[in-house]
Specification:
By secondary structure, the protein is mostly helical. The chain has 13 helices and no strands. 72% of the residues lie in helices and 0% in strands.
């Protein structure tokens, strides 16, 4: 029988306050939001159950389907882009013999900016009248067009691009620390066997960093759910609702339209979708370790 040591008791006591706070503010509020989605809550919370009426209203709203589709477009580009560029930068910095600290600071700098500042900066750069398009046209190329920011078809891609620029540094640091922790004997054995450098990274080192990959996906997934700041700052969900995302949809119905029940239903679907996407991979990794 496992003994309950004093050190174990101290650790549990230290974790208890944080666990209580997380239980109340995260799971408690989450459960309350689920409950509100089954009520007829309007401007104020109501405790009159309405069954699935809020979900039927939600699914009948064309704006919701635009926002829901954009969550997958934004999420796929954001997670894939941050992982691809972050891993590539980590490898390049690991191979750099000089200036690593300088380049690491440069690529990590966007993380020091809030997503609101990031959105405003990219709004200026991508604005057809003041940004890249205007600059190139002033150089004499009058037919040049780069108006994605005001395009119904491409606005969501500009949001994803700005978010990738902001989040790549985090993935770079995570993978760079993991690559630096690899035993030098791995490189020594690879040199003896004359294994190409790129194969050492992609066939030996990166597969060892599965825990890092899991952490990166979890962190980026949370950012996809709360992708509100950069959308509001960059496009305000426009033009029209072309770049709307569920987080902005929920905020709009909660605090501006006074439809708490419908906003709660949107929040439940948004979080449930991300859980269904991430949970299978999380279960696979846990079982693989066992």
């Amino acid at each position: 029988m496992r003994q309950f040591s004093p050190n174990r008791a101290k650790a549990l006591l230290v974790l208890l306050p944080c666990s209580v706070i997380a239980l109340y503010f995260i799971w408690g509020f989450g459960g309350y939001t689920v409950f509100l989605s089954f009520t007829d809550s309007g401007f104020l919370p109501s405790y009159n159950l309405a069954g699935l009426e809020q979900y039927r209203t939600l699914f009948a709203d064309p704006r919701w389907w635009v926002a829901y589709k954009n969550m997958f477009i934004f999420g796929g580009l954001y997670v894939g882009g941050c992982l691809a560029f972050g891993i590539l930068l980590a490898i390049l910095l690991d191979r750099a013999t000089k200036g690593e600290a300088l380049f690491r600071t440069l690529y990590l700098y966007p993380m020091s900016l809030s997503l609101v500042v990031t959105g405003l900066a990219w709004q200026w750069l991508l604005n057809p009248t003041t940004g890249i398009q205007a600059l190139v046209r002033d150089m004499g190329y009058e037919d040049f067009k780069f108006n994605w920011l005001v395009s119904n078809d491409y606005a969501i891609y500009t949001v994803a691009f700005a978010a990738i620029w902001h989040g790549t540094g985090l993935i770079m640091i995570l993978y760079l620390s993991g690559i630096k922790s690899v035993d030098n004997e791995t490189w020594y054995a690879a040199r003896i066997d004359r294994v190409p450098t790129w194969r050492v990274y992609f066939n030996i080192i990166l597969p060892q960093l599965r825990t890092t990959l899991l952490t990166a996906i979890m962190l980026l997934g949370f950012q996809v759910i709360r992708s509100f700041d950069v959308v509001v700052a960059l496009t305000k969900g426009g033009p029209g609702y072309a770049s709307d995302v569920p987080a902005r949809y929920v905020y709009d119905y909660f605090f501006e339209r006074g439809k708490i029940g419908q906003g709660s239903a949107g929040a439940v679907i948004m979080v449930a979708t991300m859980i269904m996407i991430i949970l299978p991979y999380l279960i696979y990794e846990v079982r693989r370790k066992d």
